[in-house]
Amino acid sequence: MQNTHLRTYVKKHPDNKMAWYLLGKEYLGEGQEAKANYCFQQAGEVYEAFERSKAPADIWVDYQEKLVEMAEQKEKKHRVRKMWLTLLMLLVLAGLPPADAPGFNRDAADALASALESTDDSTDNESGDSPADDQAPVAKSNVFTAGAFGGGDQGEAALAAAWSGSGPKVQTSAVLGMQVAGNWTLWKRNMSVKYIVQTNSSGKLTAQSYDAKQCNCEPPEVSTEIKRLAQAWTAKQESAAALSSAMITYKKQNGNWPKSVAQLAQPFPNNILGETAPGMTRMFPALLAMHQQGEMGKGKNTAEGTGSISDSPQGKNAAFVDTLGEKPFLQDRLEIIVDKSRHKLALISGNTIIRNYEVGLGGDRTPEGSFVISDKVVNPNGRSNGEFGSRGMQLSDTNYAIHGTNEPNSIGLDESLGCVRMSTVDVEELFALAPQGTQVRIGKDLLPETAMVPEAKDRYRYTLVLKQNNPNKTYHWLN
């Protein structure tokens, strides 16, 4: 691993003890102990602080990858500085204790503060950029992201992204906390604010923790406005995930991308979206541009539903200015998992569980395997209070379906002939979120036990598309 960038940086900033420490770690990894010891001596108290913090080895791997990325992209010097600050923040976070342990590595924090204070701001415009970019007034803007908190993960990556994504045009970057359950992260409507990164009037970045155990302090109260905006942001991400997944289904069925939301929200049987949600029309052009750009760069993977939304400059418009990176947070196509062992049905995006409902099943009569949602029917067989309830979603070309029930006491039990039964409010919400073509996987021991269903006031908001019944067919699902 070549350390040319670090050596150059140290030459220009000989008083930056953090830079000396990082260079020493590089020399030590190359087996050059004499050079490493010299660097550590120059690092002084920074070396002592971070050696006591016991930062894990993968932090250094991440640092090396970032350095290679910087070299390949030949970033301008002011962006290089921002990357350095992000890496330093990662190092401090690596020394944070788990959520159930008190205390905070004050030595590491003080070392970071000292290192940041010694950073030379005068080099920011050496690359010849227009000074107007650095002197732009702070905009009244708030952006959000989310990170995993639990299982040893304290949201380091999300905080680093918020730190590096902040700047003169972003006033506040808020990191919401997702709980961890095994390999899953849990998405909720009322996720707490864990960090806020702010740009002050002087253009300096500050980070405030809002977790008392995390910062070993009494953090201030999160403002009512930020809480309100965070709730709206989570709702918006769910709508974007549903719309994006519906667009992928349309492309797969028709060979071309839809031109409007209306093409997705048609009467049965073309009701890829059974419901529309507020804001879908506004975010449609951004999602379309992202999908089209992703298809150009990745072939047909996105159309087949195996890829995620690309980082397309064309998609970065006003629709997602409130999201860090200006693109949807839930980028992976929606899927459904049914866990027969726990009587749970989850709607997921990648490794994030958006909903985890309790369901009724049929024990061994419920098939295991992979399916897709084909028919989506409102009031199957013409009744909202019949054995299939008010919504039905057929699983591929089978006699099995996910549907409502007129036997609500059977939820959580194995009393069906093989279908998946849901309560009325749950199946209607899932019907609105999961478009036609959504993949369904049924098996055992797949999901956490924790149910994840919003309160009534926080349920997914939608408008039902007209004519979604199917009077020409009598369904004989195995209920």
How does this structure look, described?
The protein has 479 residues and is of the alpha+beta class. It folds into three domains: 1-135, no CATH class; 136-222, no CATH class; 224-479, L,D-transpeptidase catalytic domain-like. The protein is 35% helix and 18% strand. The chain has helices at residues 4-12, 17-29, 33-43, 45-53, 57-73, 77-94, 106-117, 131-134, 156-165, 212-215, 224-254, 280-298, 424-433, and strands spanning 142-150, 153-154, 172-181, 184-186, 193-199, 205-209, 275-276, 334-339, 344-349, 352-358, 369-378, 391-395, 401-403, 420-421, 439-443, 463-464. Strands 1, 2, 3, 4, 5, 6, 8, 9, 10, 11, 12, 13, 14 and 15 form a 14-stranded mixed sheet that branches. A hairpin with a 5-residue loop joins strand 5 (193-199) and strand 6 (205-209). Residues 53-61, 94-140, 299-307 and 310-316 have low confidence and may be disordered. One of its GO terms (cellular component) is extracellular region. Residues 334-443 form the L,D-TPase catalytic domain. Residues 118-127 have a biased composition (Acidic residues). Keywords: Cell shape, Cell wall biogenesis/degradation, Glycosyltransferase, Hydrolase, Peptidoglycan synthesis, Transferase. The active site is at residues 403, 419.
Short description:
The chain is an alpha+beta fold and 479 residues long. The protein is built from 13 helices and 16 strands. Helix 1 runs antiparallel to helix 2, helix 2 runs antiparallel to helix 3 and helix 5 packs antiparallel against helix 6.
Attribute tags:
single chain, 479 residues, alpha+beta, L,D-transpeptidase catalytic domain-like, 3 domains, 14-stranded mixed sheet, two-stranded antiparallel sheet, 18% strand
